[in-house]
């Protein structure tokens, strides 16, 4: 039977876990839909990572003689990690935080209470189910999220679903093998579980960073003012005079020159969209000086707005060919 000191510390741990989950819930509610939504999501994601690393460290201490208290703390942190990520994903999509917050609260407190008051192996079973539920909730929230870019959220969804299956498989193996052989089972699964948890947390944080950078770029694009289209005009006449290959080179050089002057320039058919003062004259001077365009080639540039050109991304995998050498 556990000593009174251990029970007192376990009760204190339970109080702390309740306070943590309640705090993150009340922090999220006032800011839903506000400008700090992404910032809140990053805070929840950071809490997820800290909880995963803390759970791994606590389990190591528990197995090296730290006692049952560190096991209880590890179980609580292990369930709190995906629960926080679930709340963060809901905050990111500007959904209500009440329902996911209640789920996070209920799962964490249930595991803390069971780990504190019930002997093994029941806490192992409850923890496995709770982690699986939280991970499935994360996968569901990530798949249903309309946030762009979608690729990192899909990766998070796959990771959440996979880890839920992994947790259930470990629990089922324990039930099948018999919890009487818990020592052998723990020796078999302990190290792989620690490695898996750290790898999963690292991949999720990488996806969070990817999502953050992608959203920042999308928001910057949306804030971009309307630009002016500059194209190589009279395409057929220019192709007849210079050849189609040379005219295509002119377009590539025009787009490169535009990007030199406006890093957010957007490629269009036969030209580019830029935000510049006097764009035709400015780009004409740039391609003449940087790429050696002749006066007749510069004269081909015109305002492309009346042509209804289609915006396309500029391909920047390589620099366009430089100006051909002139014979003297």
Average pLDDT over all residues? 75
Q: Biggest β-sheet, characterized? A: 4 strands, antiparallel
Largest sheet: spatial strand order: 2-3-1-4
Q: Specify the number of helices.
A: 11
- Overall number of structural domains: 2
Question: What is the gyration radius calculated from CA atoms?
Answer: 29 Å
Euclidean distance between termini CA atoms: 99 Å
The total strand number stands at 4
Helical percentage:
over 70%
The SSE order reads HHHHHHHEHHEEHHE
Unreliable stretches, pLDDT < 50, 5 or more residues? 306-319
Q: What fraction strand?
A: under 5%
In one word, what is the shape? Answer: rod-shaped
Quick take:
By secondary structure, the chain is mostly helical.
Summary tags:
2 domains; 4 strands; mainly alpha; 328 residues; 4-stranded antiparallel beta sheet
Question: If you had to describe this structure to a student in words, what would you say it looks like?
Answer:
Strands 2-3-1-4 form a 4-stranded antiparallel β-sheet, covered by helices on one side. Strand 2 and strand 3 (271-274) form a beta hairpin. 72% of the residues lie in helices and 5% in strands. The protein is built from 11 helices and 4 strands, in the order H-H-H-H-H-H-H-E-H-H-E-E-H-H-E. With 328 residues, the chain is mainly alpha-helical. It folds into 2 domains: 4-222, no CATH class; 228-307, no CATH class.
């Amino acid at each position: 039977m556990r000593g009174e000191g251990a029970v007192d510390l376990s009760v204190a741990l339970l109080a702390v876990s309740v306070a943590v989950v309640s705090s993150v819930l009340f922090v999220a509610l006032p800011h839903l839909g506000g400008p700090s939504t992404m910032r809140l999501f990053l805070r929840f994601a950071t809490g997820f990572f800290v909880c995963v690393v803390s759970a791994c460290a606590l389990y190591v201490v528990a197995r090296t003689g730290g006692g049952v208290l560190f096991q209880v703390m590890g179980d609580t942190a292990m369930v709190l990690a995906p629960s926080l990520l679930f709340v963060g994903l809901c905050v990111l999509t500007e959904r209500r935080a009440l329902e996911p917050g209640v789920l996070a609260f209920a799962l964490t407190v249930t595991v803390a209470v069971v780990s504190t008051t019930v002997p093994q192996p029941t806490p192992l079973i409850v923890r496995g189910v709770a982690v699986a539920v939280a991970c499935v909730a994360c996968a569901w929230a990530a798949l249903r999220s309309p946030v762009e870019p979608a690729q990192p959220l899909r990766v998070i969804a796959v990771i959440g679903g996979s880890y839920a299956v992994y947790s259930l498989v470990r629990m089922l193996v324990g039930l099948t093998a018999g919890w009487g052989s818990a020592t052998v089972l723990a020796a078999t699964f302990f190290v792989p579980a620690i490695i898996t948890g750290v790898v999963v947390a690292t991949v999720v944080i990488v996806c969070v960073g990817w999502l953050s950078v992608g959203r920042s770029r999308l928001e910057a694009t949306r804030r971009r003012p309307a630009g002016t289209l500059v194209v190589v005009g009279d395409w057929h006449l220019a192709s007849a005079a210079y050849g189609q290959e040379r005219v295509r080179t002119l377009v590539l050089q025009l787009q490169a020159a535009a990007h030199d002057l406006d890093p957010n320039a957007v490629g269009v058919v036969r030209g580019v969209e830029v935000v510049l003062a006097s764009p035709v004259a400015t780009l004409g001077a740039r391609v003449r000086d940087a790429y050696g365009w002749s006066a007749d080639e510069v004269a081909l540039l015109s305002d492309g707005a009346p042509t209804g050109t289609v915006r396309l991304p500029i391909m920047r995998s390589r620099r366009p060919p430089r100006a051909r050498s002139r014979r003297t």
